[in-house]
């Protein structure tokens, strides 16, 4: 057995460069693996015992933890399989015709057993890789949780930033998006722009911390597009992430449901204000627009839509009529109906402000 193991070890070591070049695997380790495998395989030949697959399973876990590439080790298994067959055939030839016939009679069983060895190794290897990936994801999620929820411990904060490959001083944005957003696509696009990002995905939203290069990259909004996306102001210290999360969330909440928009904090301050005081905003909308509830649903929708378009188009009756494909007098009539029902005039700045905030609150739900 030592002689066979040494010969097999030399074959694998010479044929597979990724094994011989691996820092985590020495030739002595490979030799021990050959001894264990050959002892187990040859020891079970000709017996009625169940094939013990713990040896390849243990090897799969060990090689996965060492980071040896799967194709490299599978190549080693193929070399081992061919080596065992060649040795058995040579021995059968030495003994004679009867031994050759016996070997051929049991060839299918032999190759099936060797295939099961390889399959057991692969299953264990892949399971170990998956376990490591899950642990890695859990560790990253825990580190990101520290940043997103805030901490007064500078040591924990520094460890979290280091573990996520984020500088403690730099240029950052927090991004909050709908949970349906295509995270993989956004991450890929951001990498192409030189932006490092780390993300947390929950049933409620996706939150990302973006580390920007020195110069603002062109196409940042395009990289993030795909649903409602709120972007915090740029900040310079990683310990400011917790505050930036709140601003990004409010910005996202200020975008109408179903919209496809990337909005930076401060671009629509009234919408953000409403999102930050949703209960009060709903009460205001009910107080100001409540009288319209008595109208049939279609009439109410027409009046509300006309008033909103009028605000969106800078208070221009002409542009509102064009947008709604109706006459200017029709727009005026609808606006007058809103004034009569709410008791507020679009010409009075205070009344107009109340109407605008109420309409915005209604649209944000």
Automatic annotation (TrEMBL):
<feature type="domain" description="PucR C-terminal helix-turn-helix">
    <location>
        <begin position="303"/>
        <end position="361"/>
    </location>
</feature>
<feature type="domain" description="CdaR GGDEF-like">
    <location>
        <begin position="150"/>
        <end position="250"/>
    </location>
</feature>
<dbReference type="InterPro" id="IPR041522">
    <property type="entry name" value="CdaR_GGDEF"/>
</dbReference>
<dbReference type="InterPro" id="IPR025751">
    <property type="entry name" value="RsbRD_N_dom"/>
</dbReference>
<dbReference type="InterPro" id="IPR025736">
    <property type="entry name" value="PucR_C-HTH_dom"/>
</dbReference>
<protein>
    <submittedName>
        <fullName>Helix-turn-helix domain-containing protein</fullName>
    </submittedName>
</protein>
<dbReference type="Pfam" id="PF13556">
    <property type="entry name" value="HTH_30"/>
</dbReference>
<dbReference type="InterPro" id="IPR042070">
    <property type="entry name" value="PucR_C-HTH_sf"/>
</dbReference>
<feature type="domain" description="RsbT co-antagonist protein RsbRD N-terminal">
    <location>
        <begin position="2"/>
        <end position="140"/>
    </location>
</feature>
<comment type="similarity">
    <text>Belongs to the CdaR family.</text>
</comment>
<dbReference type="Pfam" id="PF14361">
    <property type="entry name" value="RsbRD_N"/>
</dbReference>
<dbReference type="Pfam" id="PF17853">
    <property type="entry name" value="GGDEF_2"/>
</dbReference>
<dbReference type="InterPro" id="IPR051448">
    <property type="entry name" value="CdaR-like_regulators"/>
</dbReference>
